[in-house]
Amino acid sequence: xxxxxxxxxxxxxxxxxxxxxxxxVLACLPMLFGILAxxxxxxxxxxxxxxxxxxAGEHFLGDWTLRLLVATLAITPLRRTLHWIWLVRHRxxxxxxxxxxxxxxxxxxxxxxxxxxxxxLVRDLMKRPYIMIGMAALxxxxxxxxxxxxxxxxxxxRNWQRLHRLVYVIAIFGVIHFWMSVKKDISEPLLYAVIFGxxxxxxxxYAIAHRRAAAKSAxxxxxx
Length: 224
Ligand code: HEM
Fold this sequence. Notes:
- By secondary structure, the protein is mainly alpha-helical.
- Helix content is 80%, strand content 0%.
- It has one domain (18-223).
């Protein structure tokens, strides 16, 4: 008998116990680090967040929003490659954490950076296109977060899937926003563009096969 390959062994894996809890703990760790770093900077005069803690905090939370978006969008390709159907249960958790970090990113900007000065906020929106693009991504993410419950999935049916395709646009806007906000070194936003590109490309053959199957069954139904 031949030995099973690594891929076969991985595919046979069941969901580890407490996997869901592990996902939540891992997604909370950056936040915990952020809180401890701010407390240490304030109380012990350390400089985890450097000389401009507001900017550093904004960047820290923006980075984690993108990382969690990558993790959310990686679920489907991983599920398909490794046949881990159970992985899909954790997509919502990751998506909601991405939304949480995005809201904190926005709050750091709105409350600490522009200090809730609405004229400043609007002026910034008009003057800096990357803020406008980031804001558009945030606005698109709100309906996704609201409709992430099981009840909404059931209620919206196929429209739920259509609506949640917005996550691709959000990821693209997130990368453009990052790209436009950096002054010189574009290596990081470029890396995200490549990662999202690869994750989107993985879906193309499945989408084509799905369309073909749907067209075939429509023809079959027409004949019967
Ligand atoms: C999906 C939406 C968004 C994503 C993924 C995102 C992500 C990021 C990332 C990765 C950075 C750069 C971090 C670094 O340099 O390491 C950043 C910077 C920034 N973002 Fe966002 N962001 C989003 C939405 C927003 C929104 C809604 C606002 C405010 C209205 C905003 C305001 C800013 C600001 C002010 C900076 C700092 C730019 C600078 O260096 O001056 N972002 N964002």
